[in-house]
Amino acid sequence: MKAMILAAGKGTRVRPLTHVMPKPMIPVLGKPVMEYLVEHLARHGFDQIMVNISHLAHSIEGYFGDGRRWDVEIGYSFEGCLEGGETVAEPLGSAGGIKRIQEFGSFFDDTFLVVCGDALIDLDLSAVLRKHWQSGAAASIVVREVPRERVSSYGVVVCDDAGRIQSFQEKPSTEEALSQLANTGIYIFEPAIINLIPHATEFDIASELFPLILEQDFAFHAIEAPFNWIDIGHLSDYWEANQQLMRGKLRGAGMPGTEVRPGIWTGLNVSVDWDEVRAEGPIYVGSASRIEPDCEIFGPTWIGHGCHLERGARISRSILFDYSRISSRSRVTESLVFGRNCVDQAGNPLPDLDGTLDWVGDARDFLDPSAATG
Which distant-in-sequence residues (6+ apart) come within 8 Å of 106 by Cβ? Predict the structure, then answer.
């Protein structure tokens, strides 16, 4: 079966992370968010996957290759051009990317699935596909009920008792919302739908294609199903996704490494004396990381490989990217650390009174004193 992963966006809402990596490559529990999607698609028999790419496209292609590691075939559709020897991203929008693939090689010759490359799901895709076929729909949207106080954060789907879609509301106020069914960004289409998308035009699925489907009176259904849906559309969502996964909230997403103590996992060759550290899981410590005595770590906390926590550092419910160095006077709480950056869940830099930021840095900049010889 065929699927498409939408991966061409610039990820502006999760900057500064996406300055150096495309959003589908942002790591969650140590591996790219898109890898969870590929694994999940493979489990449900979607073995031919096209990915539209644009921003920092090479990192996605280089990591996933042709897909053989996951027993699937992966192909790519680059949206952009080459200028002065450098690739320039020119995304075509979610629907425009589908049209480009179809016009190039007629890939979508049967029912196909479309998923966003920045969400973690444990949805029973096989059951959803059956419901789509049973309804006779030309297009289906997977929806999930959200609390009324949160409808303003989502595109809302309005449908009748039989699941036929009547209209949409984009982030309505609590008072104006006609439904609590949120669009999850998971779609099932029949190839005929692609004829509605204009040629070589930036075109969006939700805001432009869906109104056309309603206007042309295609059978259009909402499929409500219980599942975990963890979106990383914003930096705060990314922080929350890691928190939830470390607590075991997504089926099939387990902690890597070896559980050395209850709730504490490590990679290979970690330098730490757990009797000299106060630690409350869940915690993961990546390979070749060093944690000095008198540190305190409260989970859920993820510490990437090659990190160095100096004596007395305090870390709580945070994410430390690879090779982060945290000095002895640091107090990092509900934050993300990468390079010489330390930001809170909303992407705001943590206060630094003297402006030196000498309490955070790259662990590779410092020679391990134990390695010195006299």
Answer: none
* Predicted TM-score (pTM) of this structure: 0.84
Per-residue pLDDT tens over the stretch 214-267: 999 999 999 998 888 877 767 777 888 888 888 877 776 778 899 999 999 999
Tell me what the mean pLDDT of segment 58-77 comes to.
Answer: 94
pLDDT at position 360 is 54
Q: 321: closest CA among 296, 343, 293?
A: 343
Question: Rounded CA gap, 180 and 174, in Å?
Answer: 9
Residues 6+ apart with CB under 8 A from 207: 170
CATH of the domain at 15: 3.90.550.10
Q: How many domains does the chain have?
A: 2
Q: At a CB cut-off of 8 Å and minimum separation 6, what does 103 contact?
A: 199
* HSE (side-chain half, CA atoms, 13 Å) at 188: 27
Predicted pLDDT of residue 254: 77
356 located within any domain: yes
Structural domain that includes position 288: 260-371
Q: Classify the C-alpha dihedral 329-332-337-343 as positive or negative.
A: negative
